[in-house]
């Protein structure tokens, strides 16, 4: 495949943008090679700077759930743009968006729009601290909640450690307030809460994790955390930036039947525009300024272009519930096909899959947390990634990312992907 234009662009980008990209995973560092520069996309396909066509399994990391350049969304943006792209004053559209989300997620009483998933998670933590008057938070190793300081604490291996480990640029003081333990390890959560009695403001989790590949919560894990939070006055935060409006209209809460206190959104909620949101139960959300005293603001929050894009997409998902069902069915079909060719290849593998999230780990043991994800054969994943890319299939450029299917994928695309997987495995094993 000729990617000479992408190579040139990447070279040029590095003179003016750190590492040539505006978000690190795009640089292909974990799989090696040259990142592809994208010119345009339509439905399930990406077209790069050299006019190569790829079947897209990233969907902008989730938002393009009904495919790229989805006509109703494009039209809504065009119609709105002529009325100005921002006012910095309230609009009816923001109320409609909030009302729509409330109609889909029963325990969202109040919701505040922001411009990214990072902002949503960082604000939710602030709200939990303001509400409880406590400082510490618990997060899980391998869960990603955006790049705010509190979330960038490098997790120790296994059960949480009291060692203060920081990444450069994050102060030890901030890191000390973030406790970590392994995903799916309820006993570790119990221990941490006990050891920090009366100090934990919030437990934040990706209910279905997507940032260490796809990892499914084991029965009892989230239910157990719910009980601990109730007993200890801890705010339970579901980070549904990936799961929201994808696993079900009501997100992971609906899919798994668990009630969180605060929920954060991003990705699908903005249909590809920069949008995030945090919301939840009234007695907690009431602390948010100007109703309460926990300050949170944004010049472009609730931006009309972003709102009309998200509102249009979410309305369609709500009005046509069969769309998410179709997407789940397509994912199950792909999973079955991949299962067959992987089994035939003889290489150890694990496919984790729920709804339209899926990932492959080349591992001979179950992948249930970060440690088991990290001990998979990621060298083999790199080869697999490139072999698939050569066959026109664009997977997330890291074994630590869930694949995101979109409903524009056709059966032909899925069959092509399964065939590409079969050929790729033959080539690399
Ligand atoms: C992507 C992601 C975020 C961060 O969202 P941004 O819009 O990139 O800031 C937070 N949490 C989860 C679970 C995510 O997948």
From TrEMBL:
Q: Where in the cell is it found?
A: Cytoplasm
Residues where N6-(pyridoxal phosphate)lysine is found: 267
Enzyme Commission number(s): 5.4.3.8
Keyword annotations:
Cytoplasm, Isomerase, Porphyrin biosynthesis, Pyridoxal phosphate
Kindly state which reaction or reactions the protein catalyses: (S)-4-amino-5-oxopentanoate = 5-aminolevulinate
Q: Translocase: is it a keyword of this entry?
A: no
Enzyme class name: isomerase
**Pathway of this protein?**
Porphyrin-containing compound metabolism; protoporphyrin-IX biosynthesis; 5-aminolevulinate from L-glutamyl-tRNA(Glu): step 2/2
Which InterPro entries did the record assign? 4pyrrol_synth_GluAld_NH2Trfase, Aminotrans_3, Aminotrans_3_PPA_site, PyrdxlP-dep_Trfase, PyrdxlP-dep_Trfase_major, PyrdxlP-dep_Trfase_small
User: What GO annotations for molecular function exist for this entry?
Assistant: glutamate-1-semialdehyde 2,1-aminomutase activity; pyridoxal phosphate binding; transaminase activity
Q: Which cofactors does this gene product need?
A: pyridoxal 5'-phosphate
Indicate whether Isomerase appears among the record's keywords.
yes
**Which processes are annotated in GO (biological process)?**
protoporphyrinogen IX biosynthetic process
Q: Which Pfam families match?
A: Aminotran_3 (PF00202)
Return the GO cellular component terms, semicolon-separated.
cytoplasm
Family per similarity comment: Belongs to the class-III pyridoxal-phosphate-dependent aminotransferase family. HemL subfamily.
Give the record's subunit note: Homodimer.
Q: Which HAMAP family match?
A: HemL_aminotrans_3 (MF_00375)
Q: Know the name of this protein?
A: Glutamate-1-semialdehyde 2,1-aminomutase
Naturally occurring in which organism (per UniProt) = Panacibacter ginsenosidivorans
User: What taxonomic ancestry is recorded?
Assistant: Bacteria, Pseudomonadati, Bacteroidota, Chitinophagia, Chitinophagales
